[in-house]
Amino acid sequence: MSVQPISLAVLREKYAKGGESAAADIFRRVAKALASVEKDPFFWEGQFLEVLEGGFIPAGRIMSAAGTDISATLINCFVQPVGDSVSEPDADGKPGIYVALREAAETMRRGGGVGYDFSRIRPKGAKVKGTASSASGPVSYMRVFDRSCETVESAGARRGAQMGVLRCDHPDIEDFIRAKDQPGELSNFNISVAVTDAFVRAVEQDAPWELVHRAEPGAAQIASGARRREDGLWVYRTVRARDLWELIMRSTYDHAEPGVLFLDRANADNNLGYCEVFEATNPCAEEWLPDYGCCCLGSIDLTRFVVRPFSAEVRFEFDRFAGLVGKAVRMLDNVLDLTYWPLEAQRAEAMAKRRIGLGFTGLGDALVMLGLKYDTQAARDFAAEVARRMRDAAYSASVDLAREKEPFPLFEAEKFLASGFAARLPEDLRRSIRECGLRNSHLLAIAPTGTISLAFADNVSNGIEPPYAWTYTRRKREADGSVREYQVEDHAYRLYRERGGDVANLPPHWVTALEISALDHMRMLEAVQPFIDTGISKTVNVPADYPFEAFKDLYLEAWRCGLKGLATYRPNPVTGAVLEAPAPAAAPGFDQSDPDRRLRLERVPEPTLASLRWRRRPRPSAGNPAWCYMVDHPWGSFAVFVGHLSDGTPFEVWVNGAEQPRGLGALAKSLSMDMRSNDRGWLKTKLESLMRASGDDGFDLPFPPDGEPVRVPSLVAGFARLVHYRCAELGAFSAIGKTPVLDALMSPKEPKTGPDGTLSWTVDVFNPATQDDFVMGLKELVLPNGQRRPYSVWLSGEYPRVLDGLCKSLSYDMRVVDPAWIGAKLRQLLDFPEPRGDFLAWVPGEGRKINYPSTVAYLARLMIHRYALLGILDEEGYPMEDMGIVTYEADNVVPLRARSAGAMEVRPGRRCGECGNYAVVLRDGCEFCTACGALGGCG
Fold first, then answer.
1. A GO molecular-function term, please (predicted)?
2. Is the Cβ–Cβ distance between 514 and 571 less than 8 Å?
3. Catalytic residues, which ones?
4. Lowest mean pLDDT among 172-186, 245-259, 566-580
């Protein structure tokens, strides 16, 4: 396929040097540079070039700087120590805080990101003997590091990334967890809590948890109960473990930070547990590293090994993949000898252990090409087999390198083979390692691959992730200050279309990140992690309404599964607007793969065109007749009007009168659109449903034509019965004909849950002008394509009971498979007025209030917002994709707004340097602007 323009633009901006203009130019430069340290550079240059052309993509620093005259490191990230001293080494030899700051600045200046454990810094208020003062605590010093990072520009014109870690037993842990609550605070840091096994067990047992440090507390803290333990540590405070866990989880739920790192699990699995200790990770958290340890990274594009994709004969070439793995290991090992080291301590650490991190990218796309759905056991089995083959080939290649070039200096065979990870290696590999040694202490890491996948692999899915979107538009600022729009397409999507696939109707196994349950995201990690000796960068995306209790349990489940850490991203709705429902249990028809389960439909109808006859009310030049009927209800008298054309076609209904019940006018307005549809069967079904609506306002309705009293179960039922009578009298139901809307119902009746219920999106509504005070809830289900859709709306509390009829009608509209239908219904209610019923309320998704003309109008706005959060409608109520059900025969209307497949919701976040919008979020371990599509700040 031809190169995507966006791929070429990113390649030239971030990686090309001198006269380079294409990937082939960069491959030649990098292959020559990495071969230069070999005894036979000419031979290995050709070999390395084949590897690069065959799908191996070294990390961004290697691709941008190898073979240039820039004094920049080829290493993406480091971990560096910070001691409990201002300038001198502390008791354990860790550098003083400002020495560590200087080392970090030098590292970032040369292009590397840095992770730190700040746990050694004494707590706020602790005694400082040398100056007879009180300590300010680790968070205060993190702000100093943050400002330094902001000031120092990394090689390649990007800001350095940082990871700040604090142990779960540090006395300042609560301040650390809240450190990024305020916008702009520690904006150059990712932060994570280092969680121990003892702490998780204390959470499970609801036990007390001691916050401790070796530094002596201040006098005030001792007076408040601080004490010294037998092991010499000072207990500053004791808290309830579950309360601290709740604080961590609440912050992560609301702000996607702090992350959670399982400290003991990482150390237990460390190949070098006999000579090093992990305390922190690199900024994207895929590598636990010791002091001055480095990430020497590269990824293999899995899609390059899928033969005959999208066909019945499709297969993955494991042997060819394993062959490429061996040569990629050699290339990364050479990086350690070629690179510029910002600090001598980094060089010494790397030479002693020769740690590298080979991984893969494009897993999500490879699965699609193989016909496997990401959230299935078959997909997890495949991914685990890929990881196993990669492990075996990488360790075998490192054995061969040890024979040729010697093992890493700190290699001790028996101690190494007794470690947690090495103990799981196949026996033949263990035998080879015992006999010949190993060139590299660690070999594997799955990192985020945002810009390198875009620039060098046609935008294959990132790392281990499923695709985030099949296509989207990116607005990129050019060098001259202008803005250009690029269409960004997923590699598998492009390839499928190129081979004749129908991208408008993608097969069911084509699922994106937001269509996969949180547990199934985590299960992929669980399947692959046993074969990766360091870690995996993966973001578990959860929807905005994901229940907090299920979210909290997700992290506990990750610990129980033996993972080394977990990162999640949850969109943050307007504070206080969304309430969480309890997680349901299984019932017939439920998706049981996730606590976040909804009803699941097995199939939906095909769209049918031309469902609306008119978009708006027709306006005959000579006017139109209308039938009027007076209703005397115990709550007031009002008139019902049904308007029709001269040929007898009914097209609208409305109510009039000072005593008309609140909400009935909104129902009439909504029914008018049903009357203007090209589907009399739909109108008849809708009215018959409303005629059965019950309530506490039943009455005897004098019914036309002779006024004989008929008992109706509610005012809504009586109103619907009158409209049905008049439409039947006009002959609307005498010849039903085609029923395009009725045929497009996802389910003719509202799907029912089992006794344990289903989750819903709920919002509190209060109109002080009318004293309406209630909760609106939207029940949701999952379609066969994985899309979540609302299918029913209900109210509970104090409100006009006539609104139950409106909800019943709108629930029918929600079940029309084309969301353009419910979008049109809700848009027509956005300006529905009510005398003295207007009120000030929050704009969903924004931190401001505006005046709404009525409670009904506000309900319509909230419902549209929910559809927008799910990526179905935009915030104006228009569909993100045009399915074709809602088309018009007349009125010369502007077509519905078109959206590309996989179009994304703009989410609030950090400011984007390219478009200026505050819309930068973490996507698959990389910074991603949901407004313009800019990608950056990842591996």
1. ribonucleoside-diphosphate reductase activity, thioredoxin disulfide as acceptor
2. no
3. 282, 284, 286
4. 566-580
pLDDT tens digits along 524-568: 999 999 999 999 998 887 777 788 888 888 999 999 999 999 888
Q: What is the pLDDT of residue 601?
A: 54
Nearest residue to 456 via CA among 851, 20, 18: 20
Residues contacting 117, CB < 8 A, separation 6+: 79, 81, 82, 165, 166, 167, 194, 279, 280
What is the rounded CA–CA span in Å between residue 860 and residue 164? 43
pTM for the whole structure: 0.67
Tokens 């050694």: give the residue: 120
DSSP, collapsed to helix, strand or coil, labels residue 164 as strand
Q: What share of the chain is helix, strand, coil (3-state, %, to 5)?
A: 35, 20, 45
Query: What distance in Å separates the CA atoms of residue 599 and residue 746, rounded to the nearest whole number?
Result: 12
**CA angle (378, 381, 387) in 5-degree steps:** 145
Tell me the Cα Rg of the chain. 32
Phi then psi for residue 373, to 5 deg, are: -85, 130
Give the DSSP per-residue string, 351-419.
HHH---EEEEE-HHHHHHHHT--TTSHHHHHHHHHHHHHHHHHHHHHHHHHHHHH---TT--HHHHHTS
Mode of pairing for the β-strands spanning 565-569 and 539-541:
parallel
Mean pLDDT taken over the chain: 86
**Residue-range domains of the chain with CATH:** 5-64+292-498 (3.20.70.20), 81-281 (3.20.70.20)
Can you name the residues that pair with 191 across neighbouring β-strands? 164
Structure tokens at 720: 């619907």
- Find all residues with CB under 8 Å of 889, minimum gap 6, and list them: 610, 612, 613, 614, 678
Q: Is it true that the peptide bond before 258 is cis, omega within 30 degrees of 0? A: yes
Tell me which DSSP letter residue 529 carries.
G
The pLDDT value recorded for residue 474 is 84
Q: pLDDT-based confidence at 237, cuts 50/70/90?
A: very high
3-state secondary structure labels for all residues of 680-724:
HHHHHHHHHHHCCCCCCCCEEEEECCCCEEEEECCHHHHHHHHHH
Strand, helix or coil for residue 515: helix
Q: How far apart are the first and last CA of the chain?
A: 26
- Per-residue pLDDT tens digits for 771-795: 999 999 998 887 766 678 898 998 9
